Amino acid sequence: MVQRMVVLTGAGISAESGIKTFRDNDGLWENHRIEDVATPEAFLRDPALVQNFYNLRRAQLQEVEPNAAHTALAEFERSFDGDFLLVTQNVDDLHERAGSHNLVHMHGELNKARCLACNHVQHWHSNIQSDSACQQCGAAQLRPHIVWFGEIPLYMDEIYQALSRCDVFISIGTSGHVYPAAGFVEIANQAGAHSVEINLEPSNVQDAFAEHRHGPAGIEVARYLATLS
């Protein structure tokens, strides 16, 4: 009987809704070098470029919808009697729109902004401009609420606690290249959890998983969750 479950989702699950994965085959993200749009140094060097990049990503969310994998996870959470935590590396809002509730975004959220003056995090669905004011202190010092390279992911204490006591860990649509998320399976394994990888192809940490299911998340997630009900 499954009592405590942790699910990790990565770019692969959102890719099936039409959102591009973080790195394309050419190493670029939406035709930009990662170093130019996804580091604190990039924001200091050219804040207008970085803000515009994330403004476009935020606007793209209006053009996509949750897919069957998002829906399957939300429906499973609603019917599950145990402890359930969904951890996503994605910054989109597709899990929320599908109905997921017990959810943390370890890399931040496109639909939020953070004030550099007072550190207040606020919902933000439009463009962030140079004169956009913080709802808390009024300062025009907003940045995307995104965890960039070189910054510490969010909710790590909560995630590690859940991993250390779960009995099932599922990783969906992740490459296994980015830490600390790539190391979650090892923590779950140490807790005695059954670990499952659901991916189009084996990840970089495939050998750490007890079970593998290869195929589209929109098919394989619901198929696997059905075995637990």
Radius of gyration: 18 Å
Number of strands: 9
Oligomer: single chain
**First and last CA, distance:** 9 Å
User: SSE string, helix = H, strand = E?
Assistant: EHHHHHEHEEEEHEHEEH
Structure description:
By secondary structure, the protein is an alpha/beta fold. 31% of the residues lie in helices and 20% in strands. It contains nine helices and nine strands. The chain has helices at residues 11-15, 34-37, 40-45, 47-60, 68-79, 94-98, 156-163, 184-190, 217-226; strands at residues 4-9, 83-88, 103-105, 108-115, 121-123, 142-146, 168-172, 194-199, 211-214. A six-stranded parallel β-sheet has the order 3-2-1-7-8-9, sandwiched between helices. Strands 5-4-6 form a three-stranded antiparallel β-sheet. Strand 2, helix 6 and strand 3 (103-105) form a beta-alpha-beta unit. It is elongated and about 55 Å long. It starts with a strand and ends with a helix. The model has no long low-confidence stretch (mean pLDDT 94).
What distinguishing features does this structure have?
alpha/beta; 229 residues; 9 helices; three-stranded antiparallel β-sheet; six-stranded parallel β-sheet; elongated
